[in-house]
């Protein structure tokens, strides 16, 4: 248990992308946290305040090359890195009592054969999966508190699972015909140079992408199967909209015949209000 005076020491691996800077911004207002190190190979020695002027006066830190021995001095280490980085370093950290929170996808899918198929690389952390909890607190809060490794959900899965899980848990909808239509802003693609993300390409445009299969689909299906105990058929199509950030997901599901008459719009509204009554959002 942390005392009132003792702050949680946090390290961030990969702090120069959109995810890293958003994490820095959120942690800046957390009264129980102290960010003690932040890493970036490309920006080694650069002050955080020089790269992000909006954080001037908040962080007196410089980016540094990742050093596992220094990271072991933290209480919690966040990974805001490309896929594959967290799994290569997590074991050394949790062996030293450091909690790991991966904001990438290394631990999101429990079936590693499925993970390898969708992410196109070998998963080197099979022995770590028993220490992993999926980081959707509305459904895994108690397990998250005890987890050594937390797998932060993907953006689309967060919005879609929160929308459909109340109906699935209550057994109210058919599991054979769920459709999710997701729309995301361009920052979700990260900072990497990409012609499709240029302003001239995406401005005043609206398009579907990864129509033949998106890697967030198996992540969502795995969690839906876990809740229902039976296979769930999900059709998921993501779309890119001309805005910097934000996400909107529309989910279509068919009520089961034996409940369709009694489940009025008011009853469904009540179900959602009761499910999330104690949640911050």
TrEMBL record:
MF annotations from Gene Ontology: N-acetyl-gamma-glutamyl-phosphate reductase activity; NAD binding; NADP+ binding
> Any idea which UniProt keywords this protein has?
Amino-acid biosynthesis, Arginine biosynthesis, NADP, Oxidoreductase
Species of origin reads hydrothermal vent metagenome
- Keyword NADP attributed: yes
Protein's UniProt name: N-acetyl-gamma-glutamyl-phosphate reductase
One biological process GO term for this chain?
Answer: L-arginine biosynthetic process
Give the enzyme's EC designation: 1.2.1.38
What SMART domains does the record point to?
Semialdhyde_dh (SM00859)
Organism taxonomic ancestry = unclassified sequences, metagenomes, ecological metagenomes
PROSITE patterns hit by this protein: ARGC
- NCBIfam families found in the cross-reference section: argC (TIGR01850)
Q: Which residues form the Semialdehyde dehydrogenase NAD-binding domain?
A: 9-147
Q: Which InterPro entries match?
A: AGPR, AGPR_AS, AGPR_dimerisation_dom, AGPR_type-1, NAD(P)-bd_dom_sf, Semialdehyde_DH_NAD-bd
Enzyme group, top EC level? oxidoreductase
Q: Please tell me whether the keyword Nucleotide-binding is annotated for this protein.
A: no
Instruction: List the pathway annotation.
Output: Amino-acid biosynthesis
